[in-house]
Design brief:
By secondary structure, the protein is mainly α. It has one domain (about 15-90). Helix content is about 60%, strand content about 0%. It contains three helices and no strands. Helix 1 runs antiparallel to helix 2 and helix 1 crosses helix 3. The longest helix is centred in the middle third of the chain and has 32 residues, at about 30-60. The protein is elongated, with a radius of gyration of 25 Å.
Length: about 90
């Protein structure tokens, strides 16, 4: 015998008629928004990384190899630290 909560296949009706947490009306707008934000942050990090590496090889500061490791392995803090420690001092001079 079927009741209100059974669709005849032993599954709860809320997940078979588009009312569950993974349906397009609830989940996918958030997933697409998170993907867009993630892509923008990734591109910003990539631009920052390339910019710091170009500046590093162009101007060759002291301890260049160490700075290359810091920039590459430091994820976001590497290029930001390079900017505040090396580039800002050079811009002031």
């Amino acid at each position: 015998m079927m009741n209100y909560y059974d669709n005849g296949y032993g599954m709860h009706h809320a997940y078979t008629y588009g009312y569950g947490p993974m349906t397009s009306s609830f989940f996918w707008p958030f997933a697409i928004g998170a993907a867009i934000v993630g892509a923008v942050l990734f591109l910003a990090w990539l631009v920052l990384l390339v910019w710091a590496l170009i500046d590093l090889f162009k101007n060759k500061p002291a301890h260049m190899t160490a700075w290359a490791f810091v920039i590459i392995l430091g994820h976001v803090m590497g290029p930001v630290g390079y900017y505040f420690i090396v580039m800002r001092d050079r811009i002031k001079k």
